[in-house]
Amino acid sequence: MLLHGLSAFWATGASINSTHTLALLAEIYIRHNRIDEGLGAIEDAQKFASTRGELFWQAELFRLKGELLLRQSDPAVQAAEESFCKALKIAQDQHATMLELRAATSLARLWKPLNKVDEAIRILNAVCVKFKEGVDNRELIEAKTVLQELRV
After folding, report:
1. How far apart are CA 105 and CA 97, in angstroms?
2. In 3D, which of 82, 137, 104 has the Cα closest to residue 112?
3. pTM of the model
Protein backbone atom coordinates (compact mmCIF):
# COMPACT_ATOMS: atom_id res chain seq x y z
CA MET A 1 0.00 0.00 0.00
CA LEU A 2 2.78 2.45 0.92
CA LEU A 3 4.73 1.55 -2.22
CA HIS A 4 1.62 2.07 -4.33
CA GLY A 5 1.12 5.50 -2.76
CA LEU A 6 4.77 6.43 -3.31
CA SER A 7 4.61 5.35 -6.94
CA ALA A 8 1.49 7.44 -7.49
CA PHE A 9 3.13 10.41 -5.75
CA TRP A 10 6.28 10.17 -7.88
CA ALA A 11 4.21 9.72 -11.05
CA THR A 12 3.00 13.29 -10.54
CA GLY A 13 6.60 14.48 -10.76
CA ALA A 14 6.68 15.36 -7.07
CA SER A 15 9.58 14.21 -4.96
CA ILE A 16 9.74 16.47 -1.92
CA ASN A 17 10.62 14.68 1.31
CA SER A 18 11.29 11.42 -0.55
CA THR A 19 14.48 10.72 1.39
CA HIS A 20 12.59 10.78 4.68
CA THR A 21 9.74 8.69 3.29
CA LEU A 22 12.13 6.08 1.90
CA ALA A 23 13.99 6.01 5.23
CA LEU A 24 10.68 5.22 6.95
CA LEU A 25 10.10 2.47 4.40
CA ALA A 26 13.56 1.06 5.16
CA GLU A 27 12.67 1.01 8.88
CA ILE A 28 9.54 -0.99 8.07
CA TYR A 29 11.66 -3.42 6.07
CA ILE A 30 14.05 -3.76 9.02
CA ARG A 31 11.16 -4.62 11.34
CA HIS A 32 9.97 -7.28 8.92
CA ASN A 33 13.48 -8.63 8.21
CA ARG A 34 13.26 -7.74 4.52
CA ILE A 35 16.90 -6.72 4.29
CA ASP A 36 17.40 -6.57 0.52
CA GLU A 37 14.30 -4.42 0.05
CA GLY A 38 15.48 -2.17 2.88
CA LEU A 39 18.87 -1.73 1.23
CA GLY A 40 17.08 -0.95 -2.03
CA ALA A 41 15.00 1.73 -0.31
CA ILE A 42 18.17 3.25 1.16
CA GLU A 43 19.86 3.21 -2.24
CA ASP A 44 16.85 4.98 -3.79
CA ALA A 45 16.81 7.51 -0.96
CA GLN A 46 20.51 8.23 -1.38
CA LYS A 47 19.92 8.84 -5.10
CA PHE A 48 17.16 11.32 -4.24
CA ALA A 49 19.44 12.96 -1.70
CA SER A 50 22.25 13.50 -4.18
CA THR A 51 20.19 14.41 -7.25
CA ARG A 52 17.56 16.57 -5.53
CA GLY A 53 19.72 18.04 -2.79
CA GLU A 54 17.63 16.54 0.03
CA LEU A 55 20.60 16.19 2.33
CA PHE A 56 18.88 16.83 5.67
CA TRP A 57 18.17 13.11 6.22
CA GLN A 58 21.47 11.82 4.85
CA ALA A 59 22.88 10.87 8.26
CA GLU A 60 19.84 8.72 9.01
CA LEU A 61 20.15 7.00 5.63
CA PHE A 62 23.71 5.92 6.46
CA ARG A 63 22.64 4.78 9.93
CA LEU A 64 19.81 2.69 8.54
CA LYS A 65 22.14 1.24 5.92
CA GLY A 66 24.43 0.14 8.74
CA GLU A 67 21.53 -1.48 10.60
CA LEU A 68 20.51 -3.34 7.44
CA LEU A 69 24.08 -4.49 6.76
CA LEU A 70 24.26 -5.99 10.26
CA ARG A 71 21.03 -7.91 9.69
CA GLN A 72 22.19 -9.65 6.51
CA SER A 73 22.58 -13.42 6.72
CA ASP A 74 26.34 -12.76 6.54
CA PRO A 75 26.63 -9.49 8.51
CA ALA A 76 28.92 -6.89 6.95
CA VAL A 77 30.30 -5.60 10.25
CA GLN A 78 33.05 -3.40 8.82
CA ALA A 79 30.73 -1.83 6.23
CA ALA A 80 28.12 -1.25 8.95
CA GLU A 81 30.72 0.43 11.17
CA GLU A 82 31.75 2.67 8.26
CA SER A 83 28.10 3.59 7.66
CA PHE A 84 27.55 4.43 11.33
CA CYS A 85 30.73 6.54 11.45
CA LYS A 86 29.70 8.37 8.29
CA ALA A 87 26.22 8.96 9.74
CA LEU A 88 27.75 10.34 12.93
CA LYS A 89 30.08 12.70 11.05
CA ILE A 90 27.31 14.00 8.79
CA ALA A 91 24.98 14.57 11.74
CA GLN A 92 27.72 16.43 13.62
CA ASP A 93 28.52 18.57 10.57
CA GLN A 94 24.82 19.41 10.17
CA HIS A 95 24.38 20.05 13.91
CA ALA A 96 21.55 17.51 13.78
CA THR A 97 21.72 16.40 17.40
CA MET A 98 18.90 13.85 17.28
CA LEU A 99 20.39 12.16 14.21
CA GLU A 100 23.78 12.29 15.92
CA LEU A 101 22.24 10.52 18.92
CA ARG A 102 20.76 7.79 16.73
CA ALA A 103 24.06 7.25 14.91
CA ALA A 104 26.07 7.21 18.14
CA THR A 105 23.66 4.72 19.71
CA SER A 106 23.92 2.36 16.74
CA LEU A 107 27.71 2.68 16.69
CA ALA A 108 28.00 2.12 20.45
CA ARG A 109 25.88 -1.03 20.21
CA LEU A 110 28.12 -2.33 17.45
CA TRP A 111 31.32 -1.50 19.32
CA LYS A 112 30.40 -3.32 22.53
CA PRO A 113 31.05 -6.86 21.23
CA LEU A 114 34.07 -5.55 19.31
CA ASN A 115 35.73 -4.60 22.63
CA LYS A 116 35.58 -0.89 21.87
CA VAL A 117 33.58 -0.15 25.01
CA ASP A 118 35.59 2.90 26.13
CA GLU A 119 35.20 4.52 22.70
CA ALA A 120 31.50 3.64 22.67
CA ILE A 121 30.94 5.23 26.08
CA ARG A 122 32.89 8.35 25.09
CA ILE A 123 31.03 8.87 21.82
CA LEU A 124 27.56 8.16 23.20
CA ASN A 125 28.04 10.19 26.37
CA ALA A 126 29.28 13.17 24.34
CA VAL A 127 25.94 13.28 22.52
CA CYS A 128 23.74 12.54 25.54
CA VAL A 129 25.10 15.52 27.48
CA LYS A 130 23.87 17.84 24.71
CA PHE A 131 20.31 17.22 25.84
CA LYS A 132 18.85 19.29 28.66
CA GLU A 133 17.94 17.68 31.97
CA GLY A 134 14.37 16.44 31.96
CA VAL A 135 14.22 16.03 28.19
CA ASP A 136 13.51 12.38 27.62
CA ASN A 137 12.31 10.93 24.37
CA ARG A 138 12.48 7.43 22.97
CA GLU A 139 15.90 7.91 21.36
CA LEU A 140 17.47 9.49 24.44
CA ILE A 141 16.06 6.84 26.77
CA GLU A 142 17.43 4.16 24.44
CA ALA A 143 20.85 5.84 24.33
CA LYS A 144 20.99 6.08 28.13
CA THR A 145 20.06 2.40 28.38
CA VAL A 146 22.89 1.50 26.00
CA LEU A 147 25.26 3.65 28.08
CA GLN A 148 24.25 1.78 31.25
CA GLU A 149 24.80 -1.56 29.49
CA LEU A 150 28.24 -0.44 28.34
CA ARG A 151 29.25 0.57 31.86
CA VAL A 152 28.36 -2.81 33.36
Report:
1. 12
2. 104
3. 0.90
* 138: CB partners within 8 A, 6+ apart: none
Distances (CA, A) of 136 to 52, 98, 102, 103, 142: 34, 12, 14, 17, 10
Angle, vertex CA 85, rays to CA 42 and CA 113, nearest 5: 105
The per-residue pLDDT for range 68-116, each reduced to its tens digit, is 999 999 999 999 999 999 999 999 999 999 999 999 999 999 999 999 9
Closest by CA position to 104, among listed 43, 75, 147, 57: 147
- Answer whether 146's CB lies under 8 Å from 108's CB: yes
The span from the CA of 128 to the CA of 61, in Å, is: 21
pLDDT one-digit tens code per residue, 31-70: 999 999 999 999 999 998 888 888 889 999 999 999 999 9
Among the listed residues 146, 26, 145, 16, the one whose alpha carbon sits nearest the alpha carbon of residue 83: 26
Q: How far apart are the C-alpha atoms of 34 and 16, rounded to whole Å?
A: 25
Structural domains in the chain plus CATH codes: 17-151 (1.25.40.10)
